[in-house]
Each structure stands twice: as C-alpha cells, then as structure tokens.
C-alpha cells in the first residue's frame, strides 16, 4: 500500500511540474480559525502570500487545540500542504473535507486525514506534508495543532494540488463529432484550449476537440462508461475510446435538487443535456432533505438511498442498486483512483449524462431510431420500445415495420360506394367512388351520385321530346312524326288512307283480272262454235 501511495504522489508531482500546476491554491482564499488572538493576527494573514521575518502572522487564542480552515472555493486533488511557522509548532495535522459550515464556524466533520507531523519546528524552518490520499476531491483544508492547548501561530499556509474534472465529466458518447484541435496527455490541457467554449471532448485517449452547446447533437444519448476505456496518459481521467468520446464541461456544473418523486417520469422532450440558459450543465443532487443549487454540501449531510457523495450526486451500486430500479447499476474504475457508477439502461431507455436515471426513449421522434415505414405506418411510442401502426387503408403483413394496401373494392363491406350510381376504384391506402356515366357527384357526399337529367340540355330539335331514365335518356319524335334518315322528325303519312288505297287497289286488281278472265273465256267459246 505504501508503494502505491508513493507512486500516486510521484505521478501527481510530475503533473505539477509538467503542467505548471504549482500554483498556491490557498493564496487569498477565505480562511477561518477556531479563535483569533487579536485583530492584528487575523487568519487572513496566513494566506496573503507574504513571508517576511517580521511580517504579520495568523494566531489563534490560547486554549483548546487551535485550527485553521482554508476554503479553496472548489474541489481539488490536494497533493501537499506547506506551513511557515512564526514560533514553535509542536506538531500538526492536515485534514480534508467538503462539509465545513463557515456560518457556524465549528469543528469539522467527516474529516479525511491528509497527513500528520509530530515534528517540533519554528522559523526559519518550514514543514511540507504530502497527503496519503492525493486522489480525494476536497474543497476545505484543515490544519490543527497537535497539542490540546496553546496558541497556534502561522506566518503562511500554502496548498498545492490539481484541478478536479470528475464533476465536469458528463459521460461517454458515440454520436459527438468534434473538430480535432490537438493531442493532449491530460484533461486539463484540453480544458485550457477550450475556454472560449462550453464543452470539450477527448477521443482515443488523446484527441481533444472543443464544442459549443449549440453544436451538441440531438438526440444526445449517453453510452456505457466502459466504452470510454482509454485514459489520458498523465492524469488517469477518462479520455474516450477508439470510437467513443468523453464529454466534459469547461465550467463547473450547477447543482439542482432532484424532484420529490424518486422515479423518473416519461418525457416527450428530445434527449438533450440539462442546461441553464447560459449553456452551463446541471448536476442533480439527491440529498435526503433536498439541496440548494450552488451548495457544495447536502443540508442534512445524508443522501437518498442509493446515492452518496458530498452533494449526493454519486451512485452507490451496493445500496438499493444505486436507485436504478429495473436497470442495472454498474461501476467503472478510472485511473486506478476513482470509481464512477451509472445505471446501465435496458434497450429502449436512455440517459443524457451518466449520472441520470434511465428514461423511456421516444424512438418515434427520430427516424434513425425506428424502422417504421412512414408511407404506410405511424410510429407509436411504448415503454421501452415502439410500434408501427398501420395507417387507414392499410393492413399488417409479415413485416412488422410496414403495411400493405387494402383493396376495399373487393368487398362491399369494406367500402361505402352506392352500387346503383357509382363504381368503386381502389387507390393507394384508400378507395374512391366514381360516378357511373349519367350520374354526377353529390355535394359533400363521396359515396353516392345523382342521376343527371339530360333532358335539360338535350333533345331540343323540332317535333322532338325527351324521356329521362336512370343514368341515361332517349329522344323521341312527338305523336304524328317520325324520324327520317337524317335523324330529324318529320310528319308521318295518313295510315288509314294508305290502307284504304291498298285495299281498293287490291279489289280493283281482282276486278280487272276477273274481266280479263271473262273475256278470254268468251273468246275461246266462240272459236269452238
């Protein structure tokens, strides 16, 4: 274990040297003390950057073991602390925490011991203590003297460490395409290059790209953290995968208390990052008594079951399955120092960032996420999936994603066409009732037609009359007239006279024949005589 701690310290020391992170994090930061000896020896004197032989110093009052607390104003990985004493110091300890309440200014709680010194020393000596747990994320640094009474006097306190990017890490993604800016060996290098943007991504363990929040894709769906299995070589942070991007926020995310309901409600909004209007990301806290946005500590200092961390934004897979419900809670270790846990969503569910609960994915909002044939079906979202419902005039076939046209004209039960006045014509997805010749469409009625009275416009010749029939008509000559070969009506001849003439002619002919026969008979008789 000792070798591991030593190795981690060496790595962090190398980071400080390479990336210039040897900045005194305590310089001019808020500082608090257990007591103040006098107004001349205020705690601010210990972080003013002045180290003189007769410079001012911070001094606690005589009494119980004195302490100083420095507020770094954000979380850092604290590597080491250096103390410049004014008078003799009989040992002291350094603690780290995120739970100091400056309003009450009382002793610290949940204090993680960074290092302890039992050495007695005084000016011009100084003492540097290296933290045993340099991977901790801490905002407050506490220095407490070892003795239980006596003044605690300090000329200057310095704190050194590295930026924390765990809270800026939003997740692993496959659908983000940034413009490759440069290759990096640490997340901070990429962040420094992208200060004019809201976000940056790293791929393949080194490829850094900057992004504005308007450039983020939609839908934005988080992939499992395990897909971003490459770390930056010098800091151990997640730096994407061969086909995946680790997304980070340039600015620290704001905090927002989770709603009262522990179960996520269905949403019809597209999967996008939860952002403030400025483009700043939001981290949801799960304190048992709620939390105010911007606070670094849960008021109750306890979390909803399945969550842990200072603001209860880290899942605890060992308790209540990390509040993942029906989904699986999975933990991934990054850089050998930090464990990140997330809900591994079942198919049909999604997260926008790795910290979120799984929500139902509305596949119907995006053509790329569903296979429904838009020409024959409508997509209907269901819990964890979707269905392709046939449009009117279509029916299912073996393919569940498309439908085929129904021929409504095959059966009278499938159409409303009036068979007397119309005939059914099948169309794609529907049908239409077309008027039979001699009928016309009825206003606001697509299924029946009215007979056309052709007599209103036809049969207009002289001595002609019109007879309308269902779907047709006929033109007839009025009484006493008949149609000639020119299709006109002319007066018909007197039929009785014609018949009388014919009969008279017939009898006349018979008479003539009889006379002729008589004459012939008389002539033959005379010859014989």
Automatic annotation (TrEMBL):
| GO terms assigned for molecular function | calcium ion binding
Compartments where found: Secreted
The record's InterPro entries line, in alphabetical order, gives: EGF, EGF-like_Ca-bd_dom, EGF-type_Asp/Asn_hydroxyl_site, EGF_Ca-bd_CS, FA58C, Galactose-bd-like_sf, Growth_fac_rcpt_cys_sf, NOTCH1_EGF-like
| Domain Apple positions | 194-281
Tell me the domain of life.
Eukaryota
| Domain WSC stretches | 166-251
Its Gene Ontology cellular component terms are: extracellular region
Q: Where is the EGF-like domain?
A: 451-490
Q: Which UniProt keywords apply?
A: Disulfide bond, EGF-like domain, Glycoprotein, Membrane, Repeat, Secreted, Signal, Transmembrane, Transmembrane helix
What Pfam families does the entry give? EGF_CA
Does the keyword Secreted feature in the UniProt annotation?
A: yes
Segments crossing the lipid bilayer: 496-523
Signal sequence extent: 1-20
PANTHER family in UniProt? EGF-LIKE DOMAIN-CONTAINING PROTEIN, VON WILLEBRAND FACTOR C AND EGF DOMAIN-CONTAINING PROTEIN
Q: What is this protein called?
A: EGF-like domain-containing protein
């Amino acid at each position: 274990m000792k070798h591991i701690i030593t190795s981690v310290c060496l790595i962090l020391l190398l980071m400080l040297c390479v990336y210039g992170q040897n900045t005194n994090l305590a310089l001019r930061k808020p500082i608090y003390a257990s007591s103040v000896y006098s107004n001349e020896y205020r705690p601010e004197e210990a972080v003013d950057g002045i180290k003189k032989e007769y410079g001012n110093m911070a001094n606690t009052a005589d009494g119980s073991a004195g302490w100083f607390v420095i507020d770094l104003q954000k979380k850092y990985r604290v590597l080491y602390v250096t103390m410049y004493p004014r008078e003799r110091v009989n040992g002291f300890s350094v603690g780290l925490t995120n739970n100091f309440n400056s309003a009450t200014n009382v002793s610290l709680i949940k204090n993680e011991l960074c290092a302890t010194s039992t050495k007695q020393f005084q000016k011009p000596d100084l003492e540097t203590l290296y933290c045993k747990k340099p991977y901790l994320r801490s905002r407050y640094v506490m220095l407490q003297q070892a003795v239980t009474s006596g003044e605690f006097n300090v000329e200057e306190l310095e704190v050194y460490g590295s930026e924390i990017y765990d809270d800026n890490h939003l997740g692993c993604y496959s659908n983000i395409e940034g413009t490759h800016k440069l290759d990096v060996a640490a997340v901070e290098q990429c962040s420094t290059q992208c200060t004019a943007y809201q976000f940056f991504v790293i791929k393949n363990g080194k490829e850094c790209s900057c992004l504005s929040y308007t450039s983020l894709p939609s839908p934005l769906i988080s992939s499992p953290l395990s897909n971003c299995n490459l770390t930056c070589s010098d800091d151990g942070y997640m730096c994407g995968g061969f086909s995946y991007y680790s997304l980070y926020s340039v600015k620290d995310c704001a905090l927002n208390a989770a709603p009262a309901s522990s179960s996520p409600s269905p949403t019809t909004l597209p999967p996008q990052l939860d952002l403030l209007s400025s483009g700043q990301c939001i981290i949801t806290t799960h304190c048992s008594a709620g939390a105010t946005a911007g606070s670094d500590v849960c008021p109750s200092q306890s979390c909803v079951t399945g969550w842990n961390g200072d603001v209860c934004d880290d899942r605890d897979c060992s308790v209540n399955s990390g509040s993942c419900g029906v989904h699986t809670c999975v933990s991934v270790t990054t850089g050998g120092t930090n464990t990140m846990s997330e809900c591994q969503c079942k198919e049909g569910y999604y997260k926008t960032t790795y910290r979120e609960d799984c929500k139902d994915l509305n596949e119907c909002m995006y053509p790329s996420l569903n296979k429904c044939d838009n020409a024959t079906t409508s997509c209907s979202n269901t819990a964890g999936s979707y269905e392709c419902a046939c449009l009117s005039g279509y029916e299912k076939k073996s393919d569940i994603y498309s439908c085929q046209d129904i021929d409504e004209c095959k059966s009278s039960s499938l159409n409303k066409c009036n068979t007397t006045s119309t005939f059914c014509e099948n169309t794609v997805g529907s049908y239409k009732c077309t008027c039979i010749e001699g009928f016309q469409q009825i206003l606001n009625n697509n299924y029946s037609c009215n007979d056309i009275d052709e007599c209103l416009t036809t049969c207009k010749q002289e001595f002609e009359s019109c007879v309308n029939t269902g779907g047709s008509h006929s033109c007839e000559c009025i009484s006493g007239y008949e149609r000639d070969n020119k299709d006109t009506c002319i007066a018909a001849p007197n039929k009785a006279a014609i018949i009388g003439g014919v009969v008279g002619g017939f009898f006349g002919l018979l008479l003539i024949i009889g006379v002729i026969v008589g004459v012939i008979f008389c002539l033959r008789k005379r010859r014989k005589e």
